[in-house]
Amino acid sequence: MSQIRKITLTENEIPRQWYNIVADMPNKPLPPLHPGTKEPIGPEMLTPLFPMELIKQEVTGDTWVDIPEEVRDVYKIWRPTPMYRAYGLEKALGTSSKIYYKYEGVSPAGSHKPNTAVPQAYYNKQEGVKRITTETGAGQWGSALSFACQLFGIECEVYMVRVSYEGKPYRKILMNTWGANVYPSPSDRTESGRKILAQDPNSPGSLGIAISEAVELAMQDEQTKYALGSVLNHVLMHQTVIGLESIKQLEKAGDMPDIVVAPFGGGSNFAGIAFPFLRYNLTEGKTIRCIAAEPASCPKLTRGEFRYDLGDTVGMTPLLPMYTLGHNFVPAPIHAGGLRYHGAGAIVSQLLKDGLIEAQSLKQLECFESGILFARTEGIVPAPEATHAIATVIREAKQADEAGEPKTILFNLCGHGHFDMGAYEQYLSGKLVEHEVTQEEISASLAELDTPVIACV
Ligand SMILES: *Cc1c(COP(=O)(O)O)cnc(C)c1O
């Protein structure tokens, strides 16, 4: 019998609604707080930053939210995305477990990020917004938003962490190609940027600083709004198209996963693939394990604290309830740039605290080794972020074999690594070094926070 390697869906099977896990959570996420008064903020506090429809989605208790037809039409450029059975990897591992992966690298920007960039640009356009500001680290979010803004005729202004701006010129050119203006952050265009530059003229920048710059500009101008590529509830919800399609694809293969794995930066691609499966746990008593894979150099889920913290460095955002390493934490410059954020989203943090999801941390050499094995057995070169999921899958498959209990494992291959050849070059030439943050560094960063601890790991 011939093998079914790629499981595809038709355009008609692109989901018509996003899934909002908040509706099914036993404990709802805690509210955001005003950074000054520390009182819960109402939706109206967010109106300078986001269009009304996204604010509604941020706080909705509805289980399902309709995807506008205009957004579905754009999704059709790359959705439904393919799912593969990883026969090559399974064979190389000699495992009895079944491994599937959902491939989000087929989007124009090469990652899962356009799944939320497109609806965010759409709702901004609906409400007459002229310009969107944002930050980007490695450049994946900036390129996704540049693409989406161009489609809907909105100006896009991207603050790109300076080290990446200098080190990843092709990501910047991709954004320029889609018509965006890109500035290295910290810049002298904002008060936040000037403040950081006054302290350190050679600041390499960080995501937290770039967020401060983008938010500041949106606050100052009525026609300008801000967009975030992860962490927030509405962003995680938009990504659930990944898991909803995966369910249909696995149904076609006659399978259901025992384990779902995704890399973890702020939580959006993890939520995207895992939440629709977690729904079966929450509503039907299933016991699918959902594992978030984070880097050992930025381990907020496995070594951080659950407490209120700022989303940015300067203090322009509300306090969010999150597993965090502290908003001043500057992770080592590992190659999985998309995973170098100090905190996790409120929903994911609550789920972790309640023991409904799991987290593992991994060092980058194990990840790259797994990524190379994947490229050589499955053909696709994974984004460095995605290699964290692959390494976790390999660990789980080996454990299942040792226990003599083969599992069905699904993971999110959230992007390709075509813009990350510098990292692969370093690994292949033996120059890639290991990074693991020390307990002293974590404790020192958390000691700078003045909010009470809700839970420790
Ligand atoms: C942005 C990004 C991540 C990390 O962000 P999440 O919100 O946790 O998904 C991971 N992988 C890729 C390819 C990314 O672009």
UniProtKB/TrEMBL annotation:
Domain of life: Bacteria
Record CDD domains: Trp-synth_B
List of residues that carry N6-(pyridoxal phosphate)lysine: K113
UniProt entry tagged with the keyword Amino-acid biosynthesis: yes
Signal peptide range in chain numbering: none
NCBIfam families, A to Z: PRK12391.1, trpB_rel
Metabolic or biological pathway, per its Swiss-Prot or TrEMBL entry: Amino-acid biosynthesis; L-tryptophan biosynthesis; L-tryptophan from chorismate: step 5/5
Family to which this protein belongs: Belongs to the TrpB family.
Task of the protein: The beta subunit is responsible for the synthesis of L-tryptophan from indole and L-serine.
SUPFAM superfamilies, per database record: Tryptophan synthase beta subunit-like PLP-dependent enzymes (SSF53686)
Keyword Amino-acid biosynthesis: yes
Naturally occurring in which organism (per UniProt): Nibrella viscosa
Tryptophan synthase beta chain-like PALP domain span: 78-415
Cofactor(s) named in the record: pyridoxal 5'-phosphate
EC numbers for this chain: 4.2.1.20
Name assigned to this protein: Tryptophan synthase beta chain
One Pfam family this sequence matches: PALP
PROSITE patterns: TRP_SYNTHASE_BETA (PS00168)
Keywords: Amino-acid biosynthesis, Aromatic amino acid biosynthesis, Lyase, Pyridoxal phosphate, Tryptophan biosynthesis
Catalytic activities: (1S,2R)-1-C-(indol-3-yl)glycerol 3-phosphate + L-serine = D-glyceraldehyde 3-phosphate + L-tryptophan + H2O
Subunit record text: Tetramer of two alpha and two beta chains.
InterPro entries: Trp_synth_b-like, Trp_synth_b_CS, Trp_synth_beta, Trp_synth_beta/beta-like, TrpB-like_PALP, TrpB-like_PALP_sf
